[in-house]
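Sequence and structure are no longer studied apart. To make this concrete, we show below a single chain and its fold as tokens.
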Amino acid sequence: MKQLLFLGLFLLSCSAASAQSLDKKTQKYYANNPVWVEMMKNPSVNFFEVNAAFEQYWAQREKPELENEEELGEQKEKERSLISKLFKSEKAEKAERNEYAFAYKQYLKWRIEVEPFVQPDGRILSQDEQHEVWEKSR
């Protein structure tokens, strides 16, 4: 259990350090383009790079609501500002927020699946290497 906690803290600190080490041009590109969606599909991708792209993209956006957050969505609707109500329809605002909702959920699932196999340099173990780890743990 302590090892999992340590691994989680390590990954968080590495991803924060990775995001800070990106140059401004890359940060801007990641903030404006959802490249993390395609990056997740690449088996040789660096975990910290995907995480940095994801974090940069969502830094200035409202994250989509997940199923268990429906009540929060109702509360947010009540709290919408007058300006927001005047210039943006509820439908347009929700569409904008949920444009990448499915990909957002895919990222969360992908992250849970690969985190145990992330190496200190961000490399994700291949399927064969993951199988070896699984065999050794049996």
Summary: The CA atoms of residues 128 and 134 lie 10 Å apart. Residues 1-19, 69-73 have pLDDT under 50 and may be disordered. The radius of gyration is 18 Å.
